[in-house]
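Async update (no meeting this week)

Hi team, since we skipped the sync, here's where things stand on the single-chain job. The sequence we agreed to prioritize is pasted below, unchanged from the tracker. I ran it this morning and attached the output directly underneath so nobody has to dig for it. Comments welcome in thread, and please keep replies under the output.
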Amino acid sequence: MLPVNYNDPAPSLLRYRFERLWLKPSVRVLVRVWVPLLLIGGMVWALSGNPAVRSAVDAGWNRVRDAVAARPELQVAAVEYPGASEALREQIAAIVPVELPVSSLDLDVAKIKEAVQSLDAVKTVEVTVQGGGVLEIRAVERTPVLVWRDGDVLRLIDDEGQRVAEIARRAVRPDLPLVVGAGADLAVSEIAALVGVLEPVKGRLRGFVRVGERRWDVVLDRGQTIMLPENGAVTALRKVMSLHSDEDLLNRDVVVVDMRNPERPVLRLSENAVQELRRLRAIVRGEHA
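Output:
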């Protein structure tokens, strides 16, 4: 029979169950990680509901941010526009006013990029803060290839049919062909092909007229017009240039070269040429009388 004061070394039932439970990894993670996080989260939530605490936190954060923003290495003191024309620089400066010096933390680079990209003359743009406190706005400008007369407005159009800018007078860009007619800006690629064919008389080219939004009239100096078909305009124009090369066609008293039916070209002579032709015919008839 055991003595009454015998101490049993075995753990109690409660302790035994706790130790068995503690051996589970999920329980240890719950106690060591999630419980502290829940306690901290609860404290933060409780404190955030206190206006005084929230104001103190915001004030402290603002002081830290202002201190960091005021550091010299974060100051932007200049703006550069690599590769941009003077006109484009003025447009960018007008829509993106930056008061210098300014901290790079106060610059919204994405907003500046969006504003510059909205300009008609800009094809692509990259905005970055470079070392030495320089805000670099690197914009690629659209290159106009024609002047489109849209009603009473003259617009410069690039090779993608996108508007580049408006000009006050045709004389501002006499080097570009003038295009007239509804829908002309949507057929820029065809215009480029026609201009290439017209290289022998490029100096005489005055412009293109879009007729019915489906075909072109080529206008040269001296009042000459080449009427092209709806389909195969480039091929038809090549035939005219071949005739000009062989017969000096466009240097004669021809007012219109009608190629709307490429199989049956029609020439319209000037009034002086018609009168001269009538005179010659009258002379011939008199000789045979």
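Quick observations from my side:
The helical segments are 13-22, 25-48, 51-69, 86-95, 109-117, 188-197, 233-247, 271-288.
The longest helix spans residues 25-48.
Reply here if anything looks off.
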